[in-house]
TrEMBL record:
It comes from Acanthaster planci (Crown-of-thorns starfish). Keywords: cGMP, Hydrolase, Metal-binding. The active site is at 501 (proton donor). The keyword Metal-binding applies. Zn(2+) 2 binds at residue 542. Binds 2 divalent metal cations per subunit. Site 1 may preferentially bind zinc ions, while site 2 has a preference for magnesium and/or manganese ions. Its EC number is 3.1.4.-. The lineage of its organism: Eukaryota, Metazoa, Echinodermata, Eleutherozoa, Asterozoa. One of its GO terms (molecular function) is 3',5'-cyclic-nucleotide phosphodiesterase activity. This is Phosphodiesterase. Pfam families: GAF, PDEase_I. Belongs to the cyclic nucleotide phosphodiesterase family. PANTHER family: CYCLIC NUCLEOTIDE PHOSPHODIESTERASE (PTHR11347).
Length: 823
């Protein structure tokens, strides 16, 4: 390095006029003062390049320089300076120089001026190459912002005209110039920075828009991410990796989408990308070849030279750790909890709860208009990665959802195919003449006392068709006969075979709706389409019932609970969904000829009616039902229509309680058989089992009495107030309640240990000689109650109690009442 020649300290006073300068300095006088005032007056625009040009021209004129330049210290990275204006030229691309490795290091760090004699030959050569000119003389002066007491720029005067070197007077000119102009220049540079931030914010919003419009195809989305990443950081190249299991998978390179066979997979612990994936931290490498993780082999084979790299993680900020529920970790490389530090989302010793899951890695190469990627580029990348993470995660979820929909559709098609009846089953039903009148199934088919469980299983579909025709739905809504046959066949096959919630239950519920239509004129209070929706909902209301209740589905975390638990009424929503599947099956849509408005109406009604079968729903609206009964039904009030439909659906659903004692007792046996099976499952799963589902604790008569008192009787009492003709249903339920009371007392007096099991129903309560007795060997107290019952019309009669309650079992059709039609 040449011998350093320090310039004398600059005077703090305004330079005065001189007659000459023996060292080649510039003389200053009144013309200089006028010039600085004129310069300050001209610095009124907000364009940094324009203002720098005016200042540079002023310096060139007053220091008699061939060229001047202003090297501004970067606000993003204080280790570099950049030049936007060189002489009278505004550069298309900024020139950037690292401060520590350049001649500007002394100027910035020591805040003193230097000349050409103070720099090395290498620094001079580098500066000549950067500025593309031969340097004969040089003066570099620090520009200090007094308010912040820091160097904000370096003013360079190059090649003194008429003298071999710059002198002290030249330095004084520069310092005096910036004493007045530096506040304006720094303000304009700050304004430029704010404009840049605003532009970047707008660009980021546009980037988010571009990314979120390509969620349907993850490969196109990755290509968009690469393009936007290059544009935002001005990078020459970009690579993008997705994290899959223990690998980094590259599906796109430089905007080109690779096919499945062209995917590049590397271990997650390998290279720069692997390091970022495992640490979850941005890595900014200023010199790629000096970094130990960089692999030169790719450059050697491709001829591309990698100068610098910015590699940043793309994270899913909503995920949860796979280990112990820690947020932010999709997978762990080492399953041993003691090695949790190797989790993808852990770095610097911080546990998973402080990190987010890494779903991808972006690797940018070679800053185009800079020496390396700056701190600002890191900040831009960090913000950009948030949008990338959201878009990638949602794109992958969208793809999974579509795949699941396709699989569900295929599974549904397969299910519906196997649910369809065979040609032998359907062919006899395809003729309208094959559908008889309801009375042909039993003379009392339209009587409340009749139980349809006596109809053979093979005749239930024909009976359902008969009810559709008899209620006028087929002609009123132009239902094709073949469509109705297909619909009823699929509904029949859509029921599983639990003890109670099977097809026979749905058929009985539908039959009770038929009874309401036939016997209660007040159903005219409803619209025809409401009655139609009610009947269809009745036969569909328990489709695909699994013999377990909503609580079991939720606590066992079943698939159904995952689908519907957020909305409540898990099973009921599933039943409606299954009904929609059947209606959407080709050749099964009995609503196909409805108008658009009626079609939407009937589906909405079906959903509301089926959801009303949830006991929790019924208990929520019971006060409204009682109020409606007290205030009177208002035909013009849509809410009254909705409440009445819910009430009618519940009364249909509980209609087994209105039949004779023999039927009611048989149904109770089926119900508790199903309940106890669920209770056994709950015990096996370690779940808490309610008493009514526990075969070891349940007292069936007491449970039935409570059910009738709190659920069934209030339903039919409310119905009798709204529709007085239905009062006989209250009496029927009350009579069965009386039988349960007597049965409970008899069990207590006889100390029957089987009162809490299914075997309880097999105890004979009839004398060997067939006398009209409640049971064999009845206690005197029970005999007295029977005698009193003959004189109490509201409690049932002795004649009603003497029905044979020992039924023969039918293993093939447990839901069917095996008594003869004449019963």
């Amino acid at each position: 390095m040449a011998t350093q020649q320090r310039l004398p300290p600059a005077s703090t006073t305004t330079p005065t006029a001189c007659s000459g300068s023996p060292d080649g300095g510039t003389c200053m006088g009144s013309s200089y003062d006028n010039g600085i005032l004129q310069l300050c007056a001209e610095l009124h625009d907000n364009d940094p390049a324009s203002m720098q040009t005016k200042v540079v021209k002023y310096l060139e004129r007053h220091t008699q320089s061939e060229c001047c330049a202003l090297w501004i210290v970067s606000s993003e990275d204080a280790t570099e300076v950049f030049c936007q204006v060189l002489g009278n030229r505004v550069l298309e691309e900024e020139i950037r120089i690292l401060i520590p490795l350049s001649c500007f290091n002394t100027v910035v760090t020591e805040e003193r001026s230097i000349t050409l004699d103070d720099i090395s030959e290498n620094s001079r050569t580098e500066l000549e190459q950067k500025m593309d000119m031969k340097i004969k003389s040089l003066l570099c002066v620090p520009v200090i912002n007094q308010a912040r007491s820091k160097v904000v720029a370096v003013a360079c005067c190059i090649n003194k005209i008429g003298a071999p070197r710059f002198g002290q007077a030249d330095e004084d000119v520069v310092r005096h110039c910036f004493r007045y102009t530096v506040p304006v220049l720094t303000s304009v540079m700050s304004l430029q920075k704010e404009r840049q931030l605003k532009q970047e914010t707008q660009s980021m919003l546009q980037v988010a828009k571009n990314l979120f419009t390509h969620l349907d195809d993850v490969r196109i989305l990755l290509r968009e991410i690469m393009m936007e990443a290059r544009n935002l950081t001005q990078a020459e190249r970009c690579s993008l990796f997705l994290v899959e299991n223990d690998e980094l998978v590259a599906k796109v390179f430089d905007g080109h989408v690779l096919d499945e066979m062209g995917e590049v997979r590397i271990p997650i612990t390998q290279g720069i990308a692997g390091h970022v994936a495992t640490t979850g931290k941005i890595l900014n490498i200023k010199d790629a070849y000096s970094h130990p993780l960089f692999y030169r082999g790719v450059d050697n084979s491709t001829g591309f030279r990698t100068r610098n790299i910015l590699c940043f993680p793309i994270k899913d900020r909503s995920s949860e750790c796979a280990e112990g529920g820690q947020p932010g970790c999709p997978s762990v490389l080492h399953k041993d909890p003691s090695q949790l530090k190797d989790c993808w989302c852990v770095g610097d010793g911080k546990r998973c709860s402080e990190r987010h899951a890494v779903v991808g890695i972006a690797e940018l190469c070679n800053k185009v208009n800079g020496l390396y990627f700056t701190k600002h580029d890191e900040e831009v990348a960090a913000v950009f990665s948030i949008y990338c993470g959201i878009s990638i995660v949602h794109s992958l979820l969208y793809k999974k959802m579509k795949d699941a929909q396709y699989r569900s559709k295929l599974a549904n098609e397969l299910m519906m195919y196997h649910m369809k009846g065979t040609e032998e089953d359907i062919k006899p039903l395809l003729s309208k003449e094959s559908v008889p009148k309801p009375e042909s199934f039993h003379p009392q088919m339209a009587s409340f006392t009749y139980s349809p469980r006596g109809i053979p299983d093979e005749e239930t579909i024909r009976a359902t068709l008969s009810m559709f025709y008899d209620m006028g739905f087929v002609y009123r809504y132009r239902i094709r006969h073949s469509t109705l046959v297909n619909f009823c066949t699929l509904v029949r096959r859509g029921y599983r075979d639990p003890p109670y919630h099977n097809w026979y239950h749905a058929f009985s519920v539908g039959h009770f709706c038929f009874l309401l239509y036939k016997n209660l004129n007040q159903l005219d209070m409803l619209k025809d389409i409401e009655v139609f929706a009610l009947f269809v909902a009745c036969i569909c209301h328990d489709l695909d019932h699994r013999g377990t209740n909503n609580s079991f589905q939720v606590h066992s975390q079943s698939v159904l609970a995952a689908l519907y638990s957020s909305e409540g009424s898990v099973m009921e929503r599933h039943h409606f969904a299954q009904a929609m599947c059947i209606l959407n099956t080709e050749g099964c849509n009995i609503f196909e000829n409805l108008s658009t408005e009626d079609y939407q109406t009937v589906l909405d009604l079906m959903q509301d009616i089926i959801l009303a079968t949830d006991l929790a729903h019924h208990l929520r609206i019971i006060k409204e039902l009682k109020q409606m009964a007290e205030d009177g039904y208002k035909v013009e009030d849509p809410h009254c229509h909705k409440l009445l439909l819910c009430l009618l659906m519940t009364s249909c659903d509980l209609s087994d309680q209105t039949k004779n004692w023999q039927t009611t007792k048989r149904i109770a046996e089926l119900i508790y058989k199903e309940f106890f099976t669920q209770g056994d499952l709950e015990k096996a799963m370690g779940m808490e089992t309610p008493e009514m589902y526990d075969r070891e604790k349940a007292c069936i008569p007491e449970l039935q009495i409570n059910f009738l008192n709190h659920i069934a009787l209030p339903v039919y009492q409310i119905l009798s107030k709204v529709i007085p003709q239905s009062g006989l249903l209250v009496k029927a339920v009350d009579a069965n309640k009386t039988m349960w009371l007597r049965l409970k007392r008899e069990s207590s007096l006889r100390k029957l240990s089987s009162a809490n099991s299914i075997d309880f129903f097999q105890i004979p309560f009839r004398s060997e000689n067939g006398a009209a007795e409640f049971g064999k060997g009845l206690s005197e107290e029970t005999e007295e109650e029977l005698a009193e019952g003959e004189a109490e019309p509201g409690r049932g009669s002795k004649a009603g109690a003497v029905e044979d309650i020992s039924e023969r079992n039918n293993n093939n059709n447990p839901g069917r009442d095996t008594t003869t039609k004449s019963s």
